[in-house]
């Protein structure tokens, strides 16, 4: 089964790109971010015609998240991150799909730093960590996927020295991501590609895509019950080069039906015992 995350940067304005990618890549479950559309303008018919059922949590002009599935109806379990009843930004949706729980998120950018937007980002991250602690305690198969707006390490950013003052690379945000992983989540892409330069976002400016001056900010995290089934992970980098494409590329993982006992190791990977 292939599970993907994709910040579409406007689901209606880039619907042609999304539908082309769905047809070519045929992911089974997809988490979308930055719909930039209210609920009534979500293109449910076009996505349904492409073979996907969907749930979504939209917002006019900004934010918005959705879960698509062609392997069973997504049964919504939550459409907002708990912990702040006054937070009206559409950044989180969660559903049971095909025997596992899928959480789709769009974590705040946080710039400029310091300031209220950065404070909101840190608070949102704290709420996420509290909620994922409850999720992981259930022991069920879970994937948390989306645009986290964080480069976890210097390996995840082109010229890290240029990002020292940015909210996406701040010590507080990177520490929060480390705390999240410390609960027992597996960063799927970095597990499969431990030593490789691999990005998921390239700015529209300064010819960033052609220079491969990118960032790895879109992540798929697997709970201990799901991580042993991780068979592959990668980025559909070429999609970023399509006309009218998002500044993000789709990121995907392959999950085997049963635990993967042997896996082809990339250079520098540390073998581990897998049940």
TrEMBL record:
UniProt-recorded name of the protein: Exodeoxyribonuclease III
Marked site positions, Transition state stabilizer: 149
Cofactor: binding comment: Probably binds two magnesium or manganese ions per subunit.
Cofactor(s) required, per the database record: Mg(2+); Mn(2+)
Keywords: Hydrolase, Magnesium, Manganese, Metal-binding
CDD domains named in the record: ExoIII-like_AP-endo
Pfam annotation, one family: Exo_endo_phos
Listed PROSITE patterns: AP_NUCLEASE_F1_1 (PS00726), AP_NUCLEASE_F1_3 (PS00728), AP_NUCLEASE_F1_4 (PS51435)
Binding annotation for Mg(2+): 7, 34, 147, 149, 247-248
Top-level lineage group: Bacteria
Domain Endonuclease/exonuclease/phosphatase: 4-248
Catalytic site positions: 106, 147, 248
GO molecular function: DNA binding; double-stranded DNA 3'-5' DNA exonuclease activity; endonuclease activity; metal ion binding
Swiss-Prot/TrEMBL site (Important for catalytic activity) positions: 218
Gene: xth
Family (UniProt): Belongs to the DNA repair enzymes AP/ExoA family.
């Amino acid at each position: 089964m292939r599970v993907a995350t994709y910040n579409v940067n406007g689901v209606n304005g880039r619907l042609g790109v999304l539908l082309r990618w769905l047809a070519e890549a045929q992911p089974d479950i997809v988490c979308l971010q930055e719909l930039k559309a209210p609920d009534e303008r979500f293109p449910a018919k076009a996505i349904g015609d492409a073979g996907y059922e969907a749930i979504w949590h939209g917002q006019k002009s900004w934010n918005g998240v959705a879960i698509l599935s062609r392997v069973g109806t997504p049964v919504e379990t939550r459409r907002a991150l708990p912990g702040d009843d006054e937070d009206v930004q559409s950044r989180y949706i969660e559903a049971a799909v095909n025997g596992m729980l899928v959480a789709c998120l769009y974590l705040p950018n946080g710039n400029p730093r310091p300031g209220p937007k950065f404070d909101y980002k840190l608070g949102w991250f704290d709420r996420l960590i509290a909620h994922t602690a409850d999720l992981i305690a259930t022991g069920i198969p879970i994937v948390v996927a989306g645009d986290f707006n964080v480069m976890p390490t210097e390996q995840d950013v082109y010229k890290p020295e240029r990002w020292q003052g940015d909210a996406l690379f701040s010590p507080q945000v990177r520490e929060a991501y480390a705390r999240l992983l410390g609960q027992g989540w597996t960063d799927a892409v970095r597990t499969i590609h431990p030593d490789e330069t691999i990005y998921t976002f390239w700015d529209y400016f300064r010819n960033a895509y052609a220079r491969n001056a990118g960032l790895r900010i879109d992540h798929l995290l697997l709970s201990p019950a799901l991580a042993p089934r991780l068979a592959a992970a990668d980025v559909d980098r070429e999609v970023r080069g399509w006309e009218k494409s998002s500044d993000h590329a789709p990121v995907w993982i392959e999950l085997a039906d049963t635990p993967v006992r042997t896996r082809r190791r990339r250079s520098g990977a540390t073998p581990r015992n897998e049940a």
